[in-house]
Write a structure and sequence with these properties.
Layout (H helix, E strand, L loop, with lengths): L8 H9 L6 H12 L6 H9 L11 H4 L9 H4 L6 E2 L1 H8 L8 H5 L2 E2 H9 L3 H9 L4 H8 L3 H6 L8 H10 L2 H30 L1
Length: 205
């Protein structure tokens, strides 16, 4: 009786194990080929077709390039304000007026440089009234009272005062105002002394 070949599970396993597997270098090369961003094919072609401005054969780096899904740079991040216009607060500061007291149209719209120049050259009635009667911004209030802006805060004075209120304080001369005026004058004298000293040193050098 002829013996039949052994076809047990163990032998099948041994036979299979004799088949050579891919070497480590081959597997590494395959992995590199799969991960390489410049591999030609439908994937890289799709990227080139969908992302403008991305070098051929490379993946776009969205965070660094700022490219949107459509391939265009996001306009919002690149937009800049018009250099020929300014905010209402800036225009009010240049006109030395208190913004909340200006007309609503002035507060709600950007002011062009040409419009600002026209307001300065030929002030409308509302601007004349504000400059005359107030309420005035705190920098003008401090100047009219002869004190610093910090002195206004120490005297618990609000952001704006009318001309009538300023005249009332000057006539009343409260203690805090007298003290702040004296302190401010000392500061001004010291600033003048230092300025004169620096000028003298510059001439001698």
């Amino acid at each position: 009786m002829t013996a039949s070949p052994d076809v047990s599970a163990g032998n099948r396993s041994n036979a299979t194990s004799t088949v050579p597997s891919r070497t480590a270098s081959a597997a590494s090369a395959a992995a590199t080929a799969c991960n390489r961003s410049g591999t030609p094919g439908w994937r890289s072609a799709q990227i080139r077709a969908h992302f403008a401005g991305v070098p051929p054969g490379t993946y776009p780096r969205v965070r660094e390039l700022g490219v949107t899904a459509s391939g265009y740079r996001y306009a919002g991040a690149m937009s800049r304000p018009n250099a020929q216009s300014m905010k209402p607060a800036t225009a009010a500061k240049k006109l030395d007026v208190y913004l909340p007291a200006t007309p609503a149209e002035f507060q709600e719209n950007a002011i062009t440089r040409a419009e600002l120049a026209a307001l300065q050259a030929d002030p409308p009635q509302w601007l004349k009234d504000l400059r005359k009667d107030g309420p005035h911004p705190k920098n003008l209030v401090a100047a009219k009272l002869g004190i610093s802006i910090a002195g206004l805060a120490r005297g618990a004075v609000g952001d704006a005062l009318t001309t009538e209120q300023i005249d009332g304080l000057l006539a009343e001369k409260p203690e805090w105002l007298v003290a702040e005026r004296e302190s401010y004058q000392k500061v001004l004298r010291e600033e003048r002394r230092l300025k004169s000293l620096r000028a003298e040193q510059a001439r001698e050098s």
